[in-house]
TrEMBL record, chain A:
The keyword Phosphoprotein applies. PANTHER family: ANTI-SIGMA FACTOR ANTAGONIST TM_1081-RELATED-RELATED, ANTI-SIGMA-B FACTOR ANTAGONIST. This is Anti-sigma factor antagonist. InterPro entries: Anti-sigma_ant (IPR003658), STAS_dom (IPR002645), STAS_dom_sf (IPR036513).
Automatic annotation (TrEMBL), chain B:
NCBIfam families: PRK04069.1 (NF003144), rsbW_low_gc (TIGR01924). Keywords: ATP-binding, Kinase, Nucleotide-binding, Serine/threonine-protein kinase, Transferase. It holds the Pfam family HATPase_c_2. Residues 12-141 form the Histidine kinase/HSP90-like ATPase domain. This is Serine-protein kinase RsbW. Its EC number is 2.7.11.1. It comes from Peribacillus simplex. InterPro entries: Anti-sigma-factor_SerPK, HATPase_C_sf, HATPase_dom, RsbW. Belongs to the anti-sigma-factor family. It catalyses: L-seryl-[protein] + ATP = O-phospho-L-seryl-[protein] + ADP + H(+); L-threonyl-[protein] + ATP = O-phospho-L-threonyl-[protein] + ADP + H(+).
């Protein structure tokens, strides 16, 4: 019941791999890892959720916050590797139409 | 409606690190009752949202609180109750302005939270919220195949 945040940085491209559960306990840690990156100018952040086994609205809140911050700093924000369960969470909350999302099979093929 | 049921009650400290413990328990209860994988995941999210609300809002000032989670196991459904004895907030007020995001909304105006109650109402079959000395969230999830029959009964009353 924890989360690991693995950040790979190449110039302005950040690949973030998350592993574990995102809930009220782990969301603050995720926020602390993502926000300093999201506040840089012109970054491209790709977050891989392949190994996220659980997520609720606290996780959605962190991603919305990071997404807003990235956009405010002229960057790009993409979520990849979503399971059907996670994808559903973004669909029913309407976030799938707002945030750039690539589900499991599409992830990482660019 | 059957009155015979099994009842399980847990109390956790009002701290976020214990919400995962409730999810583990719920997984066990849900699979024991024969809920499908997706239904158990729905139950886990809805119950976690209720616990998160209790932990984050009810005990904002004093950290020494408890959250009580109880499970009523019926042949056709699971009832989950999450209650705190912290400060009540105005739930009707909270409910307004909630709900899904709308396409075309300005990015800088997107809310960063407040989806918890919306998810509870979306993922569970029936939700009631009672306010007294705290807030109690009652949630019901029917076993697959039972819901249609139950709905038919309630419509006729």
């Amino acid at each position: 019941m924890n989360i690991t945040v693995d950040v790979n940085e190449l110039n302005t491209e950040f690949n973030v791999k998350l592993k574990g559960e995102i809930d009220a306990y782990t969301a603050p840690k995720l926020r602390e890892s993502l926000f300093p990156i999201s506040e840089q100018e012109n970054v491209s952040i790709t977050i891989d959720l392949t190994e996220v086994s659980y997520m609720d609205s606290t996780g959605l809140g962190v991603f919305v916050g990071a997404f807003k911050s990235v956009r405010a700093h002229n960057g790009e924000f993409t979520l990849v590797g979503l399971s059907e369960r996670l994808r559903r969470l973004f669909d029913i909350t309407g976030l799938a139409d707002i945030i750039d999302i690539k589900s499991g099979t599409e992830g990482g093929l660019e | 409606m059957s009155q015979v049921y099994d009842y399980i009650e847990m109390k956790i400290p009002a701290k976020p690190e214990f919400i995962g413990v409730i999810r583990l328990t719920l997984s066990g209860i849900g699979s024991r009752m024969g809920f499908a994988y997706d239904e158990i995941e729905d139950l886990k999210i809805a119950t976690s949202e209720a616990c998160t609300n209790a932990v984050q809002h009810a005990y904002k000032d004093s950290e020494k609180g408890e959250v009580k989670v109880s499970f009523g196991l019926y042949p056709d459904r699971l009832e989950v109750m999450v209650s705190d004895s912290g400060k009540s907030c105005n739930f009707e007020e909270v409910r307004q302005g909630l709900g899904p995001y709308e396409n075309g909304q300005k990015v800088e105006l997107l809310r960063e939270g407040g989806l918890g109650l919306y998810l509870i109402e979306t993922l569970m079959d029936d939700v009631k919220i009672h306010q007294h000395d705290g807030v109690t969230v009652f949630m019901t999830k029917f076993l697959e195949g039972e819901q249609v029959e139950m709905d038919a009964k309630t419509v006729s009353t």
